[in-house]
Amino acid sequence: MQKQPSNEPILHIISRDDWERARIGTDYRGDTLDTEGFIHCSTRDQIAKTANRFYPGRTDLLLLCIDPGRVTAEIRYEPAENHERFPHIYGPLNLEAVERTIAFEPDQDGLFSTPPQLGEFFQ
Description:
It is a single chain. This protein has one domain: Protein of unknown function DUF952 (ADP-ribosylation fold). The protein is 21% helix and 30% strand. The chain contains 4 helices and 8 strands.
């Protein structure tokens, strides 16, 4: 278990409807918080691969660009089967940690790629 550095942004894929429901309250829980005990997140290098694996062709998605230094819940960088480490948030995500949302839609071929807007967020 490794805590993610506070200067490295993390990303979370969410449906537009789920984001609108979350904005009514003060935090976002996500389905996996209740079922697995954490909210799945990704790094910039992982986001397209994650979207293509779990959300192929979906057009109702947003990316939450999260400042880990503002997250009040515990963040752990945990290993995946391919030796990568994925950030997971153990507890609800406080909305003030979300710096930006980006529309996340597949390309014409139905596959996701890293949105160019992320370049600004990662500088």
